[in-house]
Design goal:
Length: 239
């Protein structure tokens, strides 16, 4: 079973996960859930997706994950895994084809350090976006975000690689990508103007098959953002 339209409170619970699949509980516009969708696509993992109405969550979904967050994975054995970085690492370890994390302990540690660093960028993006929407002075958070982008650019310069882990896409690139996909819809694309290597990275990521398979257009993101800002998120926009 796979659903495109989201399931809400009062919907019937889906049946057991088929033995040859893993199930992803997602939301089409959630950047954290997109991380899991990127990994599933990049690794060619057979899966089914059930989209959740995050404003009116089904009771049966809260029974599986009391926090009600996406992404959430469910295996055919009934095991449930949540939190985006944990779900992605679980997928990479459980399905060895097309490994995205380095095999060596040091390499994995370096990727986790980059993830920890990027985790401080995400709230900064929303601070600028939400501040702008409220008509607040966002000069300070904008300067802070530009500085963080500058450091990411410096990382690429120092590594002398096309991507953040290597000259091919690895886990850290997929963990970062969803927020860069949304930059233009947030009105922040110009923040890349002073970071040529980071800008080049975004252009290379747009050519990645998993990115192409999971992304939305700028106009679609803008339409969802508008509905979200009005307090009536249209999780099924475009369907």
């Amino acid at each position: 079973m796979s659903t495109a339209k989201c399931l809400a409170k009062g919907s019937a619970a889906p049946g057991p996960v088929p033995s040859n699949l893993i199930r992803l509980y997602s939301m089409r516009f959630c950047p954290f859930a997109q991380r899991a969708r990127l990994v599933l696509n990049a690794k060619g993992i057979e899966h089914e997706t059930i989209n959740i109405n995050l404003k009116d969550k089904p009771e049966w979904f809260l029974g599986k994950n009391p926090l009600g967050l996406v992404p959430t994975l469910e295996t055919s054995a009934g095991d449930v895994i949540c939190e985006s970085d944990i779900t992605c690492e679980f997928l990479d370890e459980s399905y060895p084809k097309n490994k995205l994390l380095p095999s060596c302990v040091l390499g994995k540690a370096k990727q986790k350090m980059m993830m920890e660093n990027f985790s401080k960028v995400v709230p900064n993006v929303y601070k600028v976006v939400l501040g702008k929407n409220k008509g607040e002075d966002v000069s300070a958070p904008e300067a802070e975000l530009k500085e963080k982008f500058s450091k990411l650019n410096e990382d690429l310069v120092n590594k002398k690689t096309k991507f953040f882990g290597d000259d091919s896409v690895t886990m850290i690139d997929y963990m970062m990508w969803p927020w860069f996909e949304r930059l233009e819809s947030f009105g922040l694309k110009s923040f890349l103007d002073g970071t040529p290597e980071l800008k080049k990275w975004t252009e290379l990521m747009l050519e990645d098959p998993a990115v192409k398979a999971t992304m939305h257009s700028v106009d679609t993101h803008k339409a969802f953002n508008k509905s979200y800002g009005e307090g009536k998120p249209d999780y099924d926009y475009g369907l």
